Input
Amino acid sequence: MRDINFFTMKTINYLIVIAVLTVLVSGCKKSEDQQPLYLGFDYFPINNGHELIYDADSIITDEFSQTTRTHHFQIKEIIDSTYLDNEGRPTQLIERYIRDSSNAPWIIFKVASATITNTRAERFEDNIRYVKLVFPVKQDINWNGNALNTNETKDYQYTDVHTGLTLNGINYDSVLTVLQDEEINLIENRYFLEQYAARVGMIYKENIKQVLDFNNQTVKSGYIYKETLISYTP
Output
């Protein structure tokens, strides 16, 4: 009789332990399931007064004059205000300034706008609306950057997400890379890319569009344009 009681109590204790562990595991899983999905909105800041300053470089090759012109300048971008667009969506008015050197005065040269929704970040510039980012931010997701305009389809893609990066002496803890276009062959070199840092916005831009000489692979015409962030004010 004592042996039966012993094994019965041992079985009961074992079942109690299993039940407790099951409750604990279920509680942990429920807690994990309840964590909100990170969408990545902070890669596209929308607060008024947000300011970005870039070093910009352009190299233009002219086939007819057989010359190459290099120009270095700076661009400042600031979110000036917020208004409602024609769909009633909060939209940021963005002013872009330019100067030839760090000692020259800023001159406004362009006005753009930006709108963020639950699924995408839009930018309207030079009368063209682009889908810059899509949410949630995930590795290898692609989308048509020209979905909101009449230009040909451009497949944008996240090639890196949430990675650390040091650029121009500034450390960023979370950066995503958007490959906007890439075509390299015997007659053409085309490469468009943008990088965004969390709580900062776009930190780097590179546009390359060149026509190559088929025979010797030298550049016949085209351009290289880059913007690199040098400072920002949240």
Observations:
- The first helix runs from residue 2 to 33.
